Amino acid sequence: MSFFETISDKFFNPFCCRNREVYFDCICQLIEKSKEIPVLYETDARNTLILYLQNCRYSLETENIGEEIGQGRTPQENAAVILRYFRSCGWITPQEIGRSGDNIASVSVYCRKLVDAIRKIFQEDANGAITNHIFSMYEILKSAFHRDSGRAMRPYLNLLVPLIEHECDLKNELLILKDSIREIMRAVMRMADANSFGRFLIKDELLNRFFNDYFFIKKSGLIPSYISSIDRMLQKLRRSGLYEKMVQEYRQMENVEEGQARDKINRQFGELDSFINLEYEQEMSYIDRKINTYYNLYATRMMMVLSGNTNLEHQLNGLLLFLKNLKEEERQEALKQLAQSHRLMSVGYIGRKSLERRKKSNPNRKNTGLPAGELSQEEKQRLTDELLKETPDRYSLDNAKKHFDGMFAGKDQLSLEECGIHTRDDAMMIAAGIIYSGSAGFPYEVEFREGMVETEAARISNVNIKRKEE
Length: 470
Known about the structure:
The protein is mainly alpha-helical. It has helices at 20-34, 42-54, 75-89, 109-123, 129-144, 155-189, 194-203, 205-219, 223-239, 242-254, 258-306, 312-324, 328-341, 352-355, 377-390, 397-408, 424-435; strands at residues 63-64, 68-69, 413-415, 444-454, 459-467. The radius of gyration is 42 Å and the shape is extended.
């Protein structure tokens, strides 16, 4: 049965009249309203249209659709006319009285599908659509092999059909990418000044969407691995028991012979295999070549625009050939004339590095390395003792104890503010005291408080330091 026989003869009329933008927005408003309430009654639909018409940004033009709609009528009258027009075109279901006693004004199924398709084609953001289809195909195949998978119960409808749909959509998205390159090239050829080049790079949404999708596919590193996984799982699916279930399911669903069902399934698997292993790589290679062509075209066009549509390379080549054919005296005279018409100035500046003096290395610096050769145990012990005496532990337990004894001077408790932390050594001694607080030989203990204290040397946790009880 033709689909024209299942819909009204006036189904497409609202798209062909003067108020088509108003009608499309009105049906979109009704679809969104029907998602908020269980049943859309005629009163709710009329109130929705009245509110839209009161804030309508379009001008209503008077037209003959059985009843007039235009600026001469109130929003209430126009809303009632639009509802009757939608019902006569099949966009709203026929009159049916609901439980509240009001007529039901549900949007028909075909109208919903038509509006969704229009939004999908013209209004939705296609950014990332290619990768979404690849990820969806991968997830469908991966779920097919899970234990107790719901998709395995009806593998043809739940596995193969969605895979074919995503494969077709993926082909369309690749074609959109190719068409985008053509549109970019046409736009570049129409540019006549540098200002238009700047606007093209900064404001053109098509350029941003195209390169975002393209560079994500090329540079993310995920897509090739997903493509190979999809190919591997397709082969596994074809060899599994789900293949026979697909054949039997299609045979019962379409009421055909087993041979016809098997041929249909094989053709669909062959289409998937051909696209994954051959067509996808061919399309991406074609896009790569077109991208390089686009870059070359853009560079050439930019050079011509900035040079006033003059090919400087061609002009320079002609000048050199002309000088080559001159005699020596005439060539020298021509070069002098050319030198007078062109001035080349060299501009430089002195940086800070040019003024810095080089630091001389200290020739008397003591060599800290050990001499080569074997050392006796006595010599090693002597050198070790000298090293320890020359660099004693500044923050040892004994040194920290002496430092705190000097600070307390008869006091039993000090806050961090009273310690007088002015240098890095003071801060390091406080840190050493915190470390030795729990040691048996350290006569002081640290008690933490809330917050931090800003000192001249460092930002330290707020603590109280007190003597340990004897």
